[in-house]
Amino acid sequence: GGDIALEDSPMGGLRVHVRLPASAEEDHARTTPESKTERSDLENGDQLKRVLIVEDDETIKALLTRFFESIGVMVSSFSDAREVESSLRETTTTIDVLVMDIDLPHKTGIECIREIRGQGIQTPCILITGGLSEKPDGIDNLGFLRKPFEIEELETLCLRMLRESRES
């Protein structure tokens, strides 16, 4: 199966390692025990249906989009945190999980999530970063992944956060 590994580059910045499967069937066949367990724990209808990705690196955004679409998830994406706030205010479509880079133009992912929470929007959010080593304090319903991470870790965290948000 395919996977994505992200790591800090020795010269600063981010290095992306991508391994793509030879066929779509091979990509669907790869599932970790954790994500299988998370999927089986979800009740009927409680599956990951729609994800919003906010990532200014077009390559990473495209890879994340391709991954989620390959497992049957509808994806919307933006490159700027400012677009997210207006989209969430104006949409009638439910977003199951928001996946957001921390280092974005004009406004950080942390600032954006704090503003979203201030508007009463409690959509589960996952911050991804190559910089911070610990999850920011004081934000409810927040997941955190430090680059590099395995794509299955992101899937498992999305499913766990979805389940927890529906249980509360």
Structure report:
By secondary structure, the chain is α/β, with parallel strands linked by helices. It has a single domain (32-38, 46-167), classed as Response regulator (Rossmann fold, 3-Layer(aba) Sandwich), CATH 3.40.50.2300. It has 6 helices and 7 strands, in the order ββααβαβαβαββα. It has a 5-stranded parallel sheet, sandwiched between helices. Strands 1-2 form a two-stranded antiparallel sheet. α3 links the parallel β3 (50-54) and β4. α2 packs parallel to α6. The longest helix is centred in the C-terminal third of the chain and has 17 residues, at 151-167. It is globular, with a radius of gyration of 15 Å. The model is unreliable at 23-45 (pLDDT under 50).
Short summary:
The chain has helices at residues 24-29, 33-41, 58-70, 81-90, 109-118, 151-167; strands spanning 3-8, 14-19, 50-54, 74-78, 97-101, 125-129, 142-146.
Short descriptors:
alpha/beta, 6 helices, about 170 residues, single chain, Rossmann fold, globular, two-stranded antiparallel sheet
